[in-house]
Each structure stands twice: as structure tokens, then as C-alpha cells.
Amino acid sequence: KEIDLATFETSPIGSYLTYFSEKDNQKLSLEDAQQYFASGPTFSQSSQTIAKGFNVDSTWFKTSINNSMSLSNQYRLSIEIPWLDYIDVYLVSPSGEVKHIVGGDHLPISEQPVFNRFFAADMQFENGVTDLYIRIETTAIMPVPIKLSSVQDAIADYGADKFEYGFLYGILVALALYNLVLFFSIRKKIFGLYVLYILGFVLNSMSYTGHFYTFYTSHHGVHFQDYMDVSLMITYSVIGLHFGRKLLDTHLYAPNLNKAIANISNAIPFIILFLFIMDQLHLATIVAFLFNTSFAILTILLGVLAVRAKASAANFYLISSVTAAICVSVSTAAVAGFLPYNSFTFKAIELGMAFEGIILAVALATRFRDAQRDKERAEEHARKDELTDIFNRRGFKYATSLLFPQFKQNNENFALFLLDIDKFKLVNDKFGHATGDLVIIQVTRLLDETMRPEDVIARWGGEEFIVLLPVKDENEALQLAENLRIAIENLDTQYFDESVKITTSIGVSITNFNGPNQLRSDTEIFEKVISNADNALYQAKANGRNAVCMFNSEDINSNNDEEQNVHNTSPILT
Ligand SMILES: Nc1nc2c(ncn2[C@@H]2O[C@H](COP(=O)(O)OP(=O)(O)OP(=O)(O)O)[C@@H](O)[C@H]2O)c(=O)[nH]1
């Protein structure tokens, strides 16, 4: 298998390589390997990248480069995998001269053959056929995307690479920072988990793409990169599973699975740590790879269950986890040689993650919006009376508190009616509770129809209603209350053939935010006006019921002898 430089263009050279693995940990010399290539059985394949999987013996690769046209170009051989421990490249030229280039992450970045690259070596080929031998030894997985290109092409590729990674990492870091701000302002754990998940991914990616390796200033030994890859790989997956479960509220509809995933993801870091301590890096790598594969499957499972349970943001999550799984598969297939190995296929993971990051941010926003809407609905529900569907006490206080600024600004008087159905117990006793309910509903309907849109009505208690309304003066308030009393008196609820008739007593009080009230709080004024209306109501009852009584608003702030301030104004009692 020969590369003809006259026709060769920059590309991975997997299909030009023959290879074999050393046996029984016996390190071969170049001469041994040359002999083996000449006589022993070797392998070759048609894909651009050769992937050797886990725990492979050190492997020799060979190809020949034919420079029949005496091209004097500089070429660059690169193996863009940062975790290959030992890389030896031998060039055996026609003149018999041997060039030996050493690389791999057993060396610090400063001692790599080309500055700032994990492994790259520049070379020129003499006229004729030069043999190229490569020996690779590593404990981790051994994908070997060996690429030959002109130096210019290689440098142009690095530039494009930097830009592409910068762009993808930039999107992810921006999303993480934005959600970090949300985490601190909204104080919801899920935003924090999102930030950790995204940053965990960026760190993991920077490790396995070798970006970290190019940043090292000091060397940490042959296996540092391997340890880091494994640690960051599981960190990101563990956080990803916690994030997924929390985002989708899995515990609500799949408690057992939720617990199982929580337990596994909590145990995995300890298992890996234990294997590290026992110096079982290889086993740790296998566990991490298996866990990462399970991670992709589990996230899809979580998504499917969430969609079935109609969980908030479930669709977004499922789309993002399926996309991520596809992208990881594309990248893995490219590294394993099943798909063309190029910048796009290798970066599919980061591309997928940028997409995932965006979709998950939308999912978070959707979840937050849904939670907010549920909260608003619950609050609205808590302000409503169940039987009549009008405000209850709580709702009334809320609605009136919103009106007060308007009353203050417009210097408006407002009245308060406390309305109590007379002898309601008798209605219940005679016609039954259900009919009593019906009467309450009819009174509500009548209040709704009789009062103006700007008036606030509420059910204050069992058979007691309250109305707050802006009025010009006492006369208007009294007139409106009197109309109400008459309308209720004329109400007719049917109980079989019988007609259920009721009357009401209404206590009225009127006030505004001027005068001495200026110094009082809204709550104080509110409490006072209610207590005055209550006094007036008490008086109306005491006077024989079916009456409207007015509390004298002039004396609203006086505490002495309040009952004297109550004026019976109902025509029926005059
Ligand atoms: N049907 C029905 N009855 C209710 C409801 N809430 C309270 N009641 C009844 O309303 C009656 C109120 O009775 P009381 O407070 O003694 O007053 P009253 O019989 O209306 O007499 P006065 O207020 O003095 O005129 C009680 O019998 C309660 O059971 C309700 O939601 N539905």
C-alpha cells in the first residue's frame, strides 16, 4: 500500500496502512517490525480511520510514500488524539537514513514534535519510496485517525478548528452563564444543575479533544490525561442524569426508575474512585464508557416516560436527548472508522451538545413558565369561593387592595356593604341544605347582575356577602344598597311547588383616604370600614331585619358609642 504524493491530497490515511499488534507485551524494535511486515501476517482495512478498541496490545502501522516527482513540499503527519501514551514514528528513506520522531502524552506538551499539538510531525520525503512506520502504545481506547497533509493545510485546519470549537464552546458557556444568573436570581436548583451539566460537558469535551492537554504548563505523567478523561466523562453523565430527573419530575410517575438512576449515578463516582485507587485505570475506562453509553439510553428513556406522563418540557427533553445520542453515535462511528472521519463528524458531539444546550434552556424556560402558571392558577383558585365562584375573603382583600391606589389618586369615596341573609337557618331547616345552597347561588347571581362592573363583590362567610364600591356620597351608597335589598326580597327560588322567599339585612359604611385617614395604613382603613359596616349590619338585624343601616362616616375614626352612629335608613323600618 503506497501513497503517491503526485496525486495525494490531504486526508486520513487509514486505508493505506497495514498493521499488526505486538504479542505478549514484547516490545519490538524497528528492525523486528520491518521483518514482521515483510513476512508475518498483517491487517489492512478500507476505512480512513483505524479503531482498535480497548486494552489493545501496542500496534505497528506501516505505509510507503512514493515521491516519484521529487516534490520538496513539507508534509505534516498528525494523530489528533490526546490520550495515546507513546507514539513513535520512523521514516526509512531510500538512502537508508532513519528518522525517529517521538510523541504521545507521556511527554509534556512542550516536548511534542510540533509545538502546541498533541501529536504532529513535519517531514519531507526524498525522491523515491520512503517507508513510514508508526508504533502506538496506550492503555485507553485506541482510535487512530492518522492524517497526512501539507503543512499549510494542517495550519489552516487548526485555525478552522479553533474557530469551530470556540463557536460551539462559546454557545455553551454563554448558556451556562445566563442560567447561572437565573440560578442566583430565581434560586431554583434546576438552573444550577443545568449550569453544572453544560460546564461538565464543556470540560469533558475539552479533555477528550485534547484542548486541556495543550494548556498544560507542567507534565503530570503518562496517564494523567486518561484519568482526566474518565473522571470528566462520568462527572458530566452523572450531573446529566440528576438534571434530567429533576427537570422531568421523574419521581412523580416513575419512582422506582428514578430511585434506581439516582442510586447508580451516586455510586458510579465512588466505583471509579475505587478503581483509580486500586490502579485499575483500564477497568475504570470500561466502566466509564459503559456508563456513558447507558447515559444516552437512560436520557431517552427518561424523555419517553416523561412524554407519556405529559410532564412539563418532556417533548423538548426527548428531542434533545435523541439528538445528542445521534450526534454521539456519529462521532463514535467516525472515530471507529465506520463513517468518514472529518471535522464535522468528529465534532458532531459538540454540535449536538450546543443544540441540546439550547433546547434544554427552552425546556427550562417552559418548565418555569408552566410552574408559574400553575402557581397563578392555584392563587386564583385560593381567592375564589367554591360554591359561588366569586371572591372569598382572601380574594376580596386582594382585589380591594388593588383598587385602593386608584381611590387615593382620584380622591374617591368608597362604600362597603355587608349583607346577611335573614334567618337563613330556617331556609336550611325547612327546604334542606341543597336548596340553601341554591339560594346562596341565586343571591350571588343577583349581586353580579345588580352591581356595577367596577364594584367588587365577595362571599364573606356562610350566608354573608360583602361589596366594595366607589360612590359619590352617602345617598348614592344608600340608594344602591336599598335597590339590592329590594331585588333580593323579590327573589324567588323554587323548591318543588313552593317558593322560597328570603330577605337580607345590609350594613353600609362609607369612607375615603382623606382627612385623618391620610395618616392611616390601607389595612387600618379597610379594617375600620368593615367593622363599621358590621356594626351597621348588627343594627339592621337588631331593628328587625330586611333593612339597610348606614354607619355615620363622619365619625368613622371615633370609637365612642359607635352604635349611636348607626342610622337606620331602611324605608321598611321608618
Ligand atoms: N345551605 C347552606 N347553608 C349555609 C352555608 N353556609 C352557612 N350556612 C348556614 O347558614 C346559617 C346561618 O345561621 P345563623 O348564623 O344562625 O344566622 P341566620 O339563621 O341567618 O339568622 P340571622 O343572621 O340572625 O338573621 C347556618 O344554619 C349555616 O349552617 C352554605 O354554604 N350552604
UniProtKB/TrEMBL annotation:
Keyword annotations: Membrane, Signal, Transmembrane, Transmembrane helix
Cofactor(s) listed: Mg(2+)
Pfam family, one: 7TMR-DISM_7TM
Classification via CDD domains: GGDEF
InterPro entries listed in its UniProt record: 7TMR_DISM_rcpt_extracell_dom1, 7TMR_DISM_rcpt_extracell_dom2, Diguanylate_Cyclase, GGDEF_dom, Nucleotide_cyclase, Rev_trsase/Diguanyl_cyclase
EC number: 2.7.7.65
Top-rank EC class of the record's enzyme: transferase
Molecular functions (GO terms): diguanylate cyclase activity
Gene3D superfamilies registered for this protein in UniProt: 2.60.40.2380, 3.30.70.270
Residue ranges occupied by any GGDEF domain in the UniProt entry: 412-553
Catalysed reaction, written as an equation: 2 GTP = 3',3'-c-di-GMP + 2 diphosphate
Membrane spanning stretches: 165-184, 191-210, 230-248, 260-278, 284-307, 314-339, 351-368
Gene Ontology annotations of biological process type: cell adhesion involved in single-species biofilm formation; negative regulation of bacterial-type flagellum-dependent cell motility
Recorded GO CC terms: plasma membrane
Designated name of the protein: diguanylate cyclase
Originating organism: Psychrosphaera saromensis
Lineage: Bacteria, Pseudomonadati, Pseudomonadota, Gammaproteobacteria, Alteromonadales
